[in-house]
UniProtKB/TrEMBL annotation:
<dbReference type="Pfam" id="PF00149">
    <property type="entry name" value="Metallophos"/>
</dbReference>
<comment type="similarity">
    <text>Belongs to the PPP phosphatase family.</text>
</comment>
<feature type="domain" description="EF-hand">
    <location>
        <begin position="287"/>
        <end position="322"/>
    </location>
</feature>
<dbReference type="InterPro" id="IPR004843">
    <property type="entry name" value="Calcineurin-like_PHP"/>
</dbReference>
<dbReference type="InterPro" id="IPR011992">
    <property type="entry name" value="EF-hand-dom_pair"/>
</dbReference>
<dbReference type="InterPro" id="IPR002048">
    <property type="entry name" value="EF_hand_dom"/>
</dbReference>
<dbReference type="GO" id="GO:0005634">
    <property type="term" value="C:nucleus"/>
</dbReference>
<dbReference type="GO" id="GO:0004722">
    <property type="term" value="F:protein serine/threonine phosphatase activity"/>
</dbReference>
<protein>
    <recommendedName>
        <fullName>EF-hand domain-containing protein</fullName>
    </recommendedName>
</protein>
<dbReference type="GO" id="GO:0005737">
    <property type="term" value="C:cytoplasm"/>
</dbReference>
<dbReference type="InterPro" id="IPR050341">
    <property type="entry name" value="PP1_catalytic_subunit"/>
</dbReference>
<dbReference type="InterPro" id="IPR006186">
    <property type="entry name" value="Ser/Thr-sp_prot-phosphatase"/>
</dbReference>
<dbReference type="InterPro" id="IPR029052">
    <property type="entry name" value="Metallo-depent_PP-like"/>
</dbReference>
<dbReference type="GO" id="GO:0005509">
    <property type="term" value="F:calcium ion binding"/>
</dbReference>
Length: 817
């Protein structure tokens, strides 16, 4: 092992000199591809060599003082490459200046442990390093050491490519570009663009973390982590111990704060973790859910989102301890096992996952978590503030959002809790009383529908009100709504027929027909009804924009592939009373046919619901890659139509359905932030013109492959999966989709660039079967949802996404019963 000792420089006053900015030396050898790192033992990690610049000392003099004892270098090859400025901070901060330095070729470089990682107990070797000793490390070694949380901060990894580009290009030409970065307190509104979304704002509001408190916390954080911008475990220990928490559990608190499992904390990680700990934070609603996530990570020692019984038992012991009870031995084990079973677990050998834990607490099957994970003193009391702080800054403006052909005015209202909530008010469509009364069984089945006019004789409406309802204009405006309940419309006749198809039929003896069969029904009558529906739905599709704008709440379903049974399961679970009586719209992402046996029934159901509810914009249908004639010819939907309706009539039905498919919209935008599409983002260089170009996609679109490359890619593209080589290695954001033979794979960088260019937060798509019914991909910015279980005879589940209250909630559907 090769290391040399450096003079210590950790105090603000060194040898009687007042220290100023931080000077960081990024020393890199291009031949052996290694960085020179220094061991800062008191701060618990390795990092670039750095020193505080003393008063009356230039940066170059600081570098010379730091490097002369240990390294031979060329002073002409010292270049300022990055400046982190603190001039915009509300307190006096300290700038950080990064200098790139190339050692002379005559320098002897011994790579630590000969560059090895595997087969050596690196953690033990790290513990033998002396304080302020230097070592040459490869990037692979740095990554491994980072996983052990033994770097001061992760800049040696996050800035690695940036620095290498500088070393390999600009220094050679003596034309270095300086990267200038202003250090700012992260404004809370930017959290909505990261993992935390708006739940973070709610958490800070509940903790009463005003802008003043946040500034004080950032000042404390800034001076503790310098010259890095990250908290490692040792620095976290020093900060958190000041808040009165037990040092013996510092690793547990650190794990709870580290929601991204990067082994280092940002200021936002630190801020939100303290908010979750604060005794002011209420243990109900959104704050409670966030707190429970921290509590789960705190007790999940293995940090694998699967809590063992032994870990759970520690939680139970702490719950009783915080209530002044000392539960031990068999009594603790019995109590813990009983509570463990409240989550549906049968034995102590099973594990409890995070989502089941959140569900159990939310449904009050498990109680006592409110006393866990708490500071003994609020942060506001900790700072001993004597005046009323400034209010927390949250974006609050009255904005107009056009969704589902409605203009919504966003207003801010005060709630009883003292917090604020944004609500949408439709100024152009005032409320009115619906003219039909629905009678529902306890089971949720609609048993009777009565017109409000018919109830006048029963005294349900007064005479003056009856005069209002008799107004001709009022009746005219309600025709579409009344048709929704008119059982004689083709759409309702089709739905009634599908109810018959769904159910088995007995009449005192043997079954007349099995469930999900037509029995002796005249299929030509169904075909004629379906052809009428096709004409009606085509007139709707042809008028819709290629990009639909949808408002939450909204269920998003992926591929159905002729699985009518699962579609009915979704109906009975999420819109049992029918979409018109469901407080959410429903968005389908395509692939309604092929693979399954009931593509005709799926299409008939969706077309009927769309026709019935077009007046209130509750059902939205997008096109998938199986809504193409040549694809259906390779699979079974073309043959299914012929088999069910005969050759001639079946061909006519198939062609009319595909004519409707030709006019279907291609993608949708939920709340102007979430792009929904069947396949994926396009590779075309469209910059900020995406929405404009989508609106220009031809309609009808019979041959998207030749008529619209943009539409084709939106239908076919896939995200890069683990089985495909990483695009980063070939410096490309898209590669040909060799698995499908058309379209492209796109990388996380391509997705991030696309989201940023178009001011989007997420992409929700379908197109690929997933074992759990869904998959979160590409750094959490892409959701794949698949809504047909047992696909092609497999064991996959079906799922949907609920977009509501600024959350994308993933819901798995049990289709076993």
């Amino acid at each position: 092992m090769h290391h040399k000792n450096l003079p210590s420089s950790n105090n603000n006053i060194i040898d009687g000199h007042l220290s100023l900015d931080y000077i960081v030396c990024v020393i890199y050898d291009k031949i052996k591809d290694v960085y020179l790192m220094n061991n800062y033992q008191q701060r618990g990690g390795l990092w670039f060599l750095f020193s505080e610049r003393r008063i009356n000392e230039t940066s170059l003099q600081s570098i010379k003082r730091l490097l002369d004892p240990i390294l031979i270098y060329d002073s002409d090859q010292i270049h300022l490459v990055k400046v982190c400025s603190t001039k915009t901070l509300p307190f006096k901060g300290r700038d950080v200046l990064f200098y790139a330095i190339i050692p002379k070729s005559t320098t002897t470089i011994n790579i630590w442990l000969n560059g090895k990682v595997d087969g050596i107990d690196i953690e033990r070797q790290l513990n033998t390093l002396h304080d302020n000793s230097t070592v040459w490390l490869t990037t692979i070694q740095l990554k491994y050491i980072s996983k052990l949380s033994r770097l001061l901060g992760i800049e040696p990894l996050t800035l690695n490519k940036q620095f290498k580009d500088i070393f390999h290009s600009t220094i050679k030409t003596n034309n270095t570009t300086v990267i200038y970065e202003e250090i700012k307190i992260p404004p809370i509104e930017t959290i909505s663009k990261t993992t935390y979304n708006n739940a973070a704002e709610t958490l800070l509001l509940s903790a009463k973390f005003t802008s003043t408190i946040q500034e004080k916390l950032y000042e404390e954080y800034h001076h503790s982590v310098l010259p890095s911008d990250y908290l490692n475990l040792e620095t976290f220990k020093n900060l958190i111990s000041r808040k009165g928490l037990e040092s013996s559990h510092v690793i547990d608190y650190f794990r709870a704060f580290d929601s991204t499992q990067r082994n280092y904390l940002t200021f936002l990680d630190y801020l939100l973790g303290l908010a979750a700990l604060d005794p002011n934070t209420q243990h109900g609603g959104v704050p409670a859910e966030q707190r429970c996530r921290y509590i789960f990570r705190y007790y999940n020692i293995n940090n694998n989102q699967r809590m063992t019984f032994d870990e759970f038992k520690i939680m139970i012991k702490d719950i009783h301890k915080n209530k002044g009870q000392n539960l031990i031995g068999d009594a603790l084990n019995d109590e813990a096992l009983q509570m463990f079973r409240s989550f549906g677990l049968r034995s102590s050998d099973q594990t409890l996952n995070l989502m089941d834990f959140l569900s159990g607490v939310g449904q009050l099957r498990f109680r006592g978590t409110s006393v866990l994970f708490r500071l003994t003193m609020s942060i506001s009391d900790f700072f001993k503030r004597t005046s009323t702080p400034n209010t927390l800054v949250i974006p609050s403006s009255t904005s107009n959002i056009t969704t589902s052909n409605r203009t919504l005015s966003t207003l801010t209202i005060a709630r009883r809790s003292g917090t604020q909530q944004q609500v949408s008010v439709d100024d152009t469509h005032p409320y009115e009383i619906a003219t039909h009364i629905v009678k529902v069984k306890r089971t949720g089945v609609v048993v009777d529908i009565t017109s409000l006019y018919d109830l006048e004789i029963a005294g349900a409406i007064s005479g003056s009100t009856a005069l209002f309802f008799d107004d001709d204009n009022g009746k005219f405006d309600r025709i579409s709504s009344q048709d929704c309940f008119n059982q004689r419309t083709h759409a309702n006749e089709m739905l009634n027929g599908l109810r018959y198809f769904e159910r088995g039929s007995k009449e005192g003896g043997p079954a007349l027909k099995d469930a999900f069969t037509w029995g002796k029904v005249d299929m030509s009558a169904m075909a004629r009804c379906l052809l009428v529906l096709c004409k009606q739905i085509y007139s709707i599709f042809i008028k819709e924009n290629r990009l639909l704008r949808v408002s939450s709440a909204c269920y998003i379903l992926g591929d159905l592939h002729g699985n009518f049974r699962d579609l009915i399961c979704f109906e009975k679970t999420f819109w049992r009373l029918g979409p018109v009586l469901t407080p959410a719209s429903i968005l389908f992402l395509g692939d309604y046919v092929d693979r399954g046996l009931e593509g005709v029934e799926v299409v008939a159901y969706l077309f009927a619901q769309k026709v019935l509810l077009n007046f209130c914009f509750l059902v939205f249908l997008l096109r998938g890659n199986h809504e193409l004639r040549n694809v259906q010819d390779m699979f079974q939907f073309h043959g299914e139509c012929r088999r069910k309706f005969g050759m001639d009539l079946g061909e006519q039905v198939w062609e009319e359905i595909n004519r409707c498919f030709d006019a279907m919209p291609i993608c949708a935008l939920v709340d102007n932030r979430i792009l929904c599409v069947h396949g994926g983002i396009p590779s075309l260089d469209i910059k900020n013109d995406f929405f404009k170009l989508v609106s220009q996609i031809p309609c009808p679109l019979r041959d998207p492959e030749n008529e619209s490359p943009l539409a084709w890619e939106l239908l076919w593209n896939d995200p890069l999966s683990n089985e495909i080589n990483d695009l980063e290695n070939i410096n490309n954001e898209f590669i040909s989709n060799v698995r499908r033979g058309t379209g492209f794979f796109f990388s996380s960088k391509a997705l991030n660039d696309f989201l940023q260019q178009n001011s989007l937060s997420y992409v929700v798509r379908a197109h690929e079967v997933q074992q759990q019914g869904f998959k979160v991909q590409l750094n959490g910015r892409l959701l794949t949802v698949f809504s047909s279980s047992h696909y092609c005879g497999g064991e996959n589940e079906a799922a949907t996404v609920l977009c509501d209250s600024n959350k994308l909630r993933l819901i798995r559907l049990d289709t076993s019963s």
